[in-house]
Amino acid sequence: MGTKEQLKEERDRIVKGLEETYKKLVEYKKQKKSPMIVVRNGKIEAVDPHEILPTTLYKRSAG
Fold this sequence. Notes:
63 residues, alpha+beta
């Protein structure tokens, strides 16, 4: 297996971990009834966690 394939596999594992972490964070915020702090259009906002999608997908570039 070449370096390029190893890097792709590692990147895919990292992205999967980020997706799982996001999902757990949203669930936690809902349980604690605590707002999610996000940046929208360069502004910091507190958002009700029930308005946030429970999952997200990170874009994975080809290559």
